[in-house]
Design goal:
Radius of gyration of chain B: 18 Å
Radius of gyration of chain A: 20 Å
Helix content of chain B: 10-25%
Distance between the termini of chain A: 14 Å
CATH topology of the largest domain in chain A: Rossmann fold
Order of helices and strands of chain A: EEEEEHEEEHEHEHEHEEEHEHEE
Largest sheet of chain B: 5 strands, parallel
Oligomer: heterodimer
CATH topology of the largest domain in chain B: Rossmann fold
Strand order of the largest sheet of chain B: 3-2-1-4-5
Number of domains of chain B: 2
Largest interface: A-B, 21 and 18 residues
Chain lengths: ~325, ~200
């Protein structure tokens, strides 16, 4: 087991539907007392266990205030086309249920040296910012949030954030043709501003691309996008160090298949972001389907690395150093 | 003479290259001017029309001034000393926006002090371009009296403030923009340590 995968026993204190797609879950420690402290931007990995099925472990950003650790809250957007993690949370989890979550890990933390924090959110990507704005507001921090969503009905916490922070929060409705004036925003920020973006992959690419073109140093640009493992064709993998050959099922991730074979590889976020599960490829004959945000273009071109939490393989043979 | 990394805090420098940005602030002293002239060869069109050059000639006199002006930057400032240029730099950065890129070239004293001002303005040190040119002279802070001695070329050196004989370490502080100087003969102050020209 890797560091950061220490577990917490929690009880579901409340399940609150927020809108048509999003439900909020409140977790309290089963043994009472306070949960470990965390900072805005942190996530936990939630274990979902069902009779007769391999456990699913999905990362969710904590959205409660880091100043209050009596409970952790997460918001889950229902994904009807996904592998079922969000559907399990929506359909099965009830108040009083006991669950297991990981210690919080922060891969999207605020840079507290910043003179100003400029936040850009899309859709359910708002959740880490709910925690971060609470943290900053308590310290008198300087922030500005630009939040885009499809419709008013799906504007998760839009009203809440407006109520809390007033003019520091800017809402953009896609269906009303409202669009973030990104270039104007990026060229008018005082020196020492840090930029944070969380949302759908195309939005992150758009913001990062414009920021780079307009001279934003990479040190000032922060982003987070958890990939969910994508289903795909089954494939066989040889684990060279453990001397095992395994099959990765259609609905299974490579990491889950390795764990199901009794091997305990390192992991942290299970969303292609943190880099913990990076695995060396001994040999391969086929094509990698890389879905992570960790490996560099050089790593991918070398054919010598894979992130088993979200990436797959198609071809004749794959041997991993695991 | 190239600067080699010794301990982790000892700064190392690169080669200036044009960055994507909305504005460019290039600051150099003495032979550092040549680094700006070399960067100009690789600069895209229009680069200098959004650039300000701050130059402190020191002992180089007029040698580089005409060539730098020939790059036709939007603003050109020639100052008599680093100390005189720093308040102006602070003023420039106070009203600047993200997208302004900073390039430093020349002595370690110039780069260190300009970087100190840039850090205070909220620029991350790793997003600043640097290139060492010219003298290896160091800016040294005496750990005993905290006074700073400029342009130190010898090992050891006499503190300009308290007069102690200081061993100049590679231990560097970005916050102070200075190397650390520690009394070399603390046990026996009468001991005479030979002085060598170590940072020409």
């Amino acid at each position: 087991m890797s560091s950061g995968t220490t577990k917490l026993d929690v009880t579901v204190a409340d399940v609150v539907p927020v809108n048509e797609l999003v439900t909020r879950f409140h977790f309290r420690p089963t043994s009472g007392g306070l949960l470990p402290t965390f900072s805005g931007g942190a996530h936990v990995v939630v274990e979902m266990r069902e009779e007769g099925k391999a456990p699913r472990l999905n990362p969710y950003s904590l959205m409660s205030s880091p100043l209050d650790t009596t409970e952790y809250t997460i918001s889950v957007r229902r994904d009807d086309a996904g592998r079922g993690g969000s559907l399990f949370m929506h359909n099965r989890v009830k108040p009083g249920d006991r669950m297991v979550v990981s210690y919080p890990v922060n891969l999207f933390s605020l840079d507290l040296r910043a003179k100003k924090h400029l936040m850009i959110a899309g859709g359910i990507g708002i959740t880490p910012f709910v925690a971060q704005t609470a943290q900053l507001a308590a310290e008198g921090g300087n922030f500005e949030l630009h939040y885009a969503c499809r419709t008013a009905a799906l504007f998760t916490y839009g009203d809440l954030l407006r109520e809390r922070y007033g003019k520091r929060v800017h809402l953009y409705h896609d269906d009303r043709g409202e669009k973030i004036a990104l270039d104007r925003l990026l060229t008018s920020q005082p020196l020492g501003t840090h930029l944070y973006v969380c949302g759908p992959a195309p939005m992150i690419d758009w913001v990062r691309g414009r920021a780079a073109a307009l001279g934003w140093p990479t040190e000032n640009v922060h982003f987070e996008h958890f990939s969910a493992p994508q289903p795909g064709k089954p494939f066989d993998v040889t684990l060279a160090l453990s001397g095992k050959t395994i099959r990765v099922g259609e609905q299974q991730s490579l990491l889950e298949a390795i764990e199901a074979a009794g091997v305990d590889p390192p992991y942290l976020c299970r969303g292609g972001v943190c880099g913990q599960c990076e695995t060396n490829v001994v040999s391969h004959d086929g094509t990698f389907l890389h879905n992570d945000h960790w490996l560099s273009d050089e790593d991918r071109a070398s054919g010598r690395k894979i992130m088993p939490c979200v990436s797959r393989f198609e071809g004749k043979s794959l041997v991993l150093e695991r | 003479m190239p600067i080699e990394p010794t301990i982790k805090s000892r700064p190392v420098y690169g080669t200036l290259s044009p960055q994507k940005g909305t504005e460019h602030l290039l600051i150099a002293d003495a032979e550092g001017a040549q680094a700006i002239l070399d960067l100009a060869k690789a600069a895209p069109e229009g680069f200098f029309s959004a650039a300000e050059i701050v130059f402190i000639p020191r002992a180089t006199g007029d040698r580089y001034v005409a060539a730098l002006k020939g790059l036709t930057p939007a603003r050109f400032y020639e100052g008599p000393s680093i100390a005189a240029a720093l308040p102006r730099l602070r003023q420039t950065l106070a009203t600047a926006h993200v997208g302004l890129r900073v390039y430093l070239a020349g002595t370690e004293g110039l780069m260190g002090q300009a970087m100190q001002v840039a850090l205070e303005a909220g620029i991350d040190h790793s997003s600043i371009q640097t290139e060492h040119r010219g003298s290896l002279a160091r800016r040294v802070q005496c750990v005993h009296c905290k006074g700073i001695t400029e342009d130190v070329t010898t090992q050891p050196v006499t503190c300009a403030h308290c007069g102690l004989t200081l061993f100049v370490r590679d231990h560097y502080s970005r916050r102070l923009a200075a190397f650390q100087g520690v009394c070399i003969n603390a046990e026996d102050r009468s001991e005479q340590v030979p002085v060598e020209e170590a940072f020409p």
